[in-house]
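Hi Y.,

Following your request, here is the sequence exactly as I used it, all 69 residues.
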Amino acid sequence: MLNMSKELENLINEHHYHEIADRLHVIITHIDTHIIQHPVSKINKKIYSKVDSAVSLLCEAYQEAGQKL
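Below is the corresponding structure, written out as tokens. Let me know if you'd prefer a different format.
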């Protein structure tokens, strides 16, 4: 399994990081538009908090991918 991971790592290039950053942006935007802006999320703070935490992690992943560009 470790060898396969190293092989994949050697195949990754800047385009792959651009691609995953783009996909993360799309997902973050969809979550904001369709979940965070949903009326239930606006009134139910527990739901909002959990979704907001998930978005924060996705944003961290987006930033990490962007650093590879």
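Residues 14-36 form the longest helix (23 residues).

Thanks again,
Q.
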